[in-house]
Amino acid sequence: MDISDVPGLRDATQSIDEPAFQPHLVEMSETTFSVSDSAAKRIAFLAAKEAKPVMMRVAVLGGGCSGFQYNFSFEDQRNEDDLVIEHDGAAVLVDSTSLELLKGSQLDYVEEMVGASFQVKNPNATSSCGCGNSFSV
Q1: Where are the alpha helices (DSSP H) in 49-137?
Q2: What pLDDT, in 10s, does the model give residues 78-96?
Q3: How deeply is 76 buried, as exposed, middle or buried, from its count of CB atoms within 10 A (0-12, 13-18, 19+)?
Q4: CATH of the domain spanning 29-136, picked from 2.60.300.12, 3.30.70.20, 3.30.930.10, 3.30.540.10
Q5: Strand ranges (DSSP E) for 1-137?
Q6: Which of 25, 64, 122, 130 could form a disulfide with 134 if both were Cys (CB 3.0 to 4.6 A apart)?
Q7: What one-character DSSP code corresponds to residue 71?
Q8: Tens of pLDDT along 10-34?
């Protein structure tokens, strides 16, 4: 679509080679990692109980019954290679190595009759163990 085709934008000034009708539009990529509303709410609740500001780290570690395992922790500092996701008052950190295994995944907080937990919905996992904390690709 050409800018001259958009009514009222013929004389618009463009900057950084962006179309005036879609400024700062960024396509979602396969490296995207998202945080659900329920996870953000729970993270914000837990972080508020800490003495100093903290962020939840989601990491993938070697080990577990299926080859890799998810690790969740709270940290007060980020590393240089961390992706920081902020959502509804919660901050989540993912390091660049873990992000490769989490492409397209979502962190969720699920409450069920047997308990409540953070879960990663990972479309890259080819199998996982019964507890859902370990997976393989």
Answers
A1: 96-101
A2: 999 899 999 998 999 999 9
A3: exposed
A4: 2.60.300.12
A5: 34-35, 55-62, 68-75, 82-87, 90-95, 106-112, 115-121, 127-128, 134-136
A6: 64
A7: E
A8: 333 333 343 444 433 333 344 488 9
